[in-house]
Amino acid sequence: MKKKTSAMLKITSLFLGLLLLVSLVAACGQPGTRTGLSGKLQIFHAGSLTMPFAQVSDAFNELHPDVEILAEGAGSATTIRKVTELHKECGVIGSADYTLIPELMFPDYADWYLIFASNQMCIVYTEKSQFADEINSDNWYEILQRDGITYGRSDPDQDPCGYRTLLVWQLAEKHYSVPGLYDSLYNGPGDLMRPKETDLLALLESGDLDYAFEYTSLAAQHNLKSVKLPTEINLSDENFKDFYGQAEVEIAGKEPGEKIIVKGKPIVYGVTIPSNFERMELALAWVDFLLGPDGVSIMEANGQPAVIPAITNDESKLPEPLRKYVK
Fold it and tell me: Rounded to two decimals, what is the model's pTM?
């Protein structure tokens, strides 16, 4: 009887040991499990990346709960100047226009970027907007010029959506063959400007603004009605890059008083890690997650299709863990 009891105890102990081992192994892959990464990661990003980047960070934190992520959204030029002019600590820069990274950050604050997502321009509105039941892709420019109509755009010196709006207006003048259309919209009494594109949404929802020029991703994320603009002017298609390039605007450059010329081109987003960030392992892990399957799914669910493979300016300068994502 003693031998039988002893054998049963050994079997029970073995079973419990195996159960504990399986539980520990399984826990290693579960959300909330402690990993080797810890510390603060500051992310500065375009306003139009606010929702997807928040979701990416939430998913990242399920794998790395000891990393505290602090994110700030602003116009992309303003976002970059927080690093280059205000010298704020930052681990990741997400820009709605990748060209602002080399224009404003190279060579002192970065020497590489990755193009990772795309978008297109549209006009958003609500049921409260005047002529909401009438506006379409053929008559929008006529409706915006009617008495009492207000339409918004973001500041071109701070936000790519702002100068892209001006590019759309220039291209619309050519596409619809309406001489003087750009000047009419630019100088129109209903034209309202705010620092970044997301600042216009509250005005739209309150009824203080009838229409706003935005990205289609924001229309989808905020359940807004939108006018789909023709491909010839919405800055979405590589096949129209030569036509887009006929439009250009002047915006603030790197130094006070300096101006740079921005030409029309398809909308693509860029990401980089400032070269002076001390916790490079945190930033690399986050960008790696952004470019991986989970990050791609989140971006696409938010109306910002991924660029696959990602595109870089110089693969030799790209951190080794990120090279798997480029051509």
Answer: 0.88
Alpha carbons 77 and 75: distance in angstroms, whole number:
6
Separation of alpha carbons 162 and 96, rounded Å: 11
If asked whether residues 154 and 90 sit together in one domain, one would say no
DSSP state letter for 235: S
CATH code (residue 70)? 3.40.190.10
For 24-41, write each residue's pLDDT tens digit.
Answer: 334 334 444 556 899 999
Question: What is the mean predicted confidence (pLDDT) over 269-295?
Answer: 98
Q: How many domains does the chain have?
A: 2
Rounded Cα–Cα distance for residues 304 and 176 (Å): 27
- Dig out the tokens for 269 from the structure: 């987003």
Residues 225-260 as b or e (16 or more Cβ within 10 Å = b): ebbebeebbbbbeeebeebbeebebebbebeeeeee
Phi and psi torsions of 246, nearest 5°: -75, -15
Give the domain range for residue 197: 121-251
